[in-house]
Amino acid sequence: MVKIIGLTGGIGSGKTTVINYIKSKGFPVYIADEAGKEVMEYPEIITKINLLFNNEVLLPDGFLDRTKIASIVFQNKELLGQLNQIVHPAVALHFENFKKENATADVIFKESAILFESEAYKKCYATILITAPLEVRVNRVIQRDNITKEEVLSRIKNQLTDEEKAKLATYIVENIDLNETFKNVDQIVNKILIN
């Protein structure tokens, strides 16, 4: 039976770097955010989402204007909930197919920014939370996205805190020194493979 390892971390924690390291080790990695973007290009999903937003979110090419959708749901929690009710089941199905494709693997990593918020962690064998001090996270995002400190803090405020996530996580990796981070990840993966 393949073990699902959930991996998450707040914005700027460096979870993408960790995911790329895990991929380089040959483990199958499912990235929920990428899957979400993919399913939002399915014709039937486009139709449902466009209806939800009163036919006002289609681009001339027939695809969804994700930037416009994001700006709307950022200020409307109810609409966000309805959007998630369309996208999440499609992503869940997508993940089931990914699991079938990787049925011979010992472990599959499932990366999700909202692993705990969406309660997807409950279906995981174990979870790894990538953390970093707030100041480090803020500086990383400012450099990466070229945005202001206020914008970064506003995004962080919309996520569960590391403290809240830590209560639900099986393992916590503080990502400051990359060599140390990779060493910790290796130890965790080896522990999971042995058990």
Number of alpha- plus pi-helical segments: 9
CATH architecture identity of the largest domain: 3-Layer(aba) Sandwich
- Could you name the CATH class of the largest domain? Alpha Beta
Helix-strand pattern = EHEHHHHEEHHHEH
Average pLDDT confidence is 94
Summed up, the domain count is 2
Number of strands: 5
The end-to-end span amounts to: 12 Å
CATH topology of the largest domain: Rossmann fold
> Can you identify the CATH superfamily of the largest domain?
P-loop containing nucleotide triphosphate hydrolases
Shape field: globular
Oligomerization category of the chains in this entry: single chain
Supply Rg.
18 Å
What proportion of the residues form beta strands (DSSP E)? 5-15%
In terms of per-residue confidence, which ranges show pLDDT below 50 for 5 or more consecutive residues?
A: none
